[in-house]
Design goal:
By secondary structure, the protein is an alpha/beta fold. The chain has eight helices and seven strands. Strands 3-2-1-4-5-6-7 form a seven-stranded parallel β-sheet, with helices on both faces.
Length: about 260
Amino acid sequence: MELGLNGKKAIICASSKGLGRACAMSLAREGAQVLINGRNSETLEAAAADIRAATGATVATLAIDVTTPEGRAALIAACPDPDILVNNAGGPPPGDFRDWDRDDWIKAIDANMLTAIFLIKATVDGMIDRKFGRVVNITSAAVKAPIDILGLSNGARAGLTGFVAGLSRKTVAHNVTINGLLPGPFATDRYFANIHFQAEKSGKPYEEVLAAREAANPAGRSGDPAEFGDACAFLCSAGAGFITGQNLLMDGGSYPGTL
């Protein structure tokens, strides 16, 4: 299937590893020119080299923290007219809400709600003028089915989802779509870190908790980040212009509802 992304300019946030990296790989494979970023320059350059080797695409890098105003300004300066924006940021730590103070909440909201909103604000009018734009917000399956130990993430990401629900209905007439991509248990560093947290909390061996978690998933496994990246590429495609304000859940069937 031709996705119509050849030559499109894409910013993929927090893309030196994990799901962001997978999205960058899939978009590059479809011919997009990608700008990837992350906090660790060594990890970032290694990811860029892998993407170039696998796809032959143009890959630019920027070592910044996208959750800061300075980082976002540098990102937009490096690619002021993107056709595609993939919002992503590392999730806040798990824990008990009784232990979180105001600073913890503000940090989570800044990273997982306001960062995406400010980047959309900086890019969406240019997309509207050019009559093409695709914004994908990587959020979490917790938007549909909150996870008790991830309260900071539940709150911040649900806030972003509510904001997008309104804006996406105003941009789609200009062929600019905004959608959410909701990962469940994908094999990433964050997923394994949460398994470690649950193992320590329960007093059970890590391997036992991981095996039980994967056995409980209808797919019998965790997701491959490459599957997530390909779904992102589809939502960014030229043929996906009639999909907006939606939240695509990718969890192997864990969520039991129909909506």
